[in-house]
Amino acid sequence: MRNVFDQYSQPENKVTHALMSALTEDRCLWAAFINDSAELAPPSKSSCLHIYEQTFPGQPEPVENDAEGKGVPDAWITDDDEWCLVIENKVLSDATLDQIVRHEDVAKRLGFPEPKLLLLTVKQPAPEISHKAKVVEWRSVYRWLLDTSAKNPWAKRAADYLEVLEGRLVDDQQLKAGTMTAFNGIPFGDDIPYSYLEAKRLLGLAMGELRARDDLVTAVGMDPASQGRPAITGRDEGRVWDFLQTKAANNVRSFTHAPHLTLGIHRAEVSAMVTIPNDLKRPILKKLIGLGRSGFHNVVHEILDNMKQTMRECPGMAPRLHAVQRRYPSQRAIPFEDAIISFDLRTCFHEEGPPKAQPQWLDAVYDCLAEKNSNFQTQIGAWFPYRTCDRIREPSAIDFIARTWIGCKPLLKIMDDNESDVVAENGKDLGV
User: What is the pTM of this model?
Assistant: First the structure.
């Protein structure tokens, strides 16, 4: 069914219409927007104000393409006397100073001696524009709508529409810089079924916040300037994923030659894993195998200890190791998964409480790494199942994901190509 806000073809006009429609339906929301977002105090009560979209005050609404050709502002809020707020909205394009000045001049010619200008945008414009207009990012408007939504269903409808439209724009690769929304948790579960478009949108928001975290840079050497996947796919796989590189990738040609931080949003859970790829550089793999079985157990035990505080704060989170042997019939084909071994890290050690200990699982993974004869990828980190982990639905989910990766620091330190070599077991060259 077509959304009630889908009345225009251009994204800028769509989101402007969604916001203005919500404001029109509730005058209290209207006044709050002017005061909170625009930080203005209009001279009249909200009941005396009027909204105009894609036209000039007092004129009939033009055809959408005609309005764009004439340089009409996206919206006006005015008391039809001498006060007005001119709104320009930018989603896919950048604002220019010339456009803002032109809107101001037109408003003055129409009889508004001191027009106020508001620029809604997905990214910060050139500094000189902020001297002429109040600049508000759409992410701030989105958060404001969510904060207001408990008391106002129209605010919730507008926020929901921003999510839907952003998902479409991300999937079409139209929205390449900035966001209209902000990360607010991953809501999937029995009440909100998994959606590929929504998962893709949430993945982009989450990766943006994780890339900006200084603790990941300091603790595990995350490279905030590194690029992840060039295109996020997975529509038919029931999952989307992306990765962050670490300083261990500085000396390699491809991210597949070094460990990396992988975030996946799946149908049943979110996964935050350190990936040991099949094509890991031989010197790095040699360090890992050089630990021997007992040393490998010790590193994994240290990782589990590091995660315990996070597990207490995030009930339902599961420390996990997942390894898979794949076979690709061709370069772009979906691979065959010939073998999978996946287990809770708590099964590896004789500690109190469930699950019961079965350390042979970890031995099997080490043996596969040491005697690797196939396309074999290993991941260690944590899963956050929607069924058991309610906190993954909160904005704090970002913290739990980051802390999971930081908890894996002992393994990443071993595989850091800049660290001194680990002595092979018994001092022998393992011949990797």
Answer: 0.86
